[in-house]
Amino acid sequence: MSHLTGDPKRHDLSSFKGSITGSCLCGSITVTINENLFTKPRGHLCHCENCRKATGSVVATNLTIEEKKVDIKDRDGTLKLYADKATKSGNPVYRYFCAVDGNPIFSKVDSMPGKVTISMGCMPVIPKPEMAGFTAHKHPWFNQPEGIRSYKIIREEEIMGE
Ligand SMILES: [Zn+2]
After folding, report:
1. At CA 7, angle to CA 67 and CA 49, rounded to 5?
2. Mean pLDDT of 73-102
């Protein structure tokens, strides 16, 4: 990752019409989403405590998509799974991360078969999210982007386990 490609404004979004590829910090794991993500707002922010811990951030930037549209390559065999059972519903969130650098890569829940939620921080450009979940737990100093739908607690069947 060079300092040039680290600036999302330097990327021509038309180069991501067919797909977009990101990687973890050490480069072992690459994630390719085979869809144009930049035609409309996509994905969701999550303000839940578990996502904050798992991402080390004030909010998680997630995008839930059909698994068949995603290619994940694990060059050095560093992809590890943590079954997060400390959820409100008791249903586990299966959190996959790179064991070398700790980067969150994606998560899955049993209630959404065939879907995967990508941790979008790995991508060179993150599309503007269409919604935000767990806004009841949002930090008061964090300004939600304008025009995105908010859910106090995300509906499990729609996004991910609570
Ligand atoms: Zn890595």
Report:
1. 55
2. 94
* pTM, full prediction: 0.90
Kindly state whether residue 85 falls inside one of the protein's structural domains: yes
Q: Which residue type sits at 54? A: A
Spatial separation of the C-alpha atoms in residues 11 and 84, rounded to whole Å: 34
CATH code of the domain in which 94 resides: 3.90.1590.10
pLDDT at residue 115 in the model = 97
Let me know if residue 2 belongs to a domain.
Answer: no
Residue 159, pLDDT score: 44
Rounded to the nearest whole angstrom, what is the distance from the C-alpha of residue 145 to the centroid of ligand 1? 29
Q: Per-residue confidence at 87, pLDDT binned at 50, 70, 90?
A: confident
Dist. CA 150 → ligand 1 center (Å) = 32
In a domain, 159, yes or no: no
**Which residues are CB-neighbours of 53 under 8 A, at least 6 positions away?**
none
Structural domain contains residue 157: no
Centre of ligand 1 from the C-alpha of residue 140, in Å: 32
| Domain count within the chain | 1
CA 72 to ligand 1 centroid distance, Å: 12
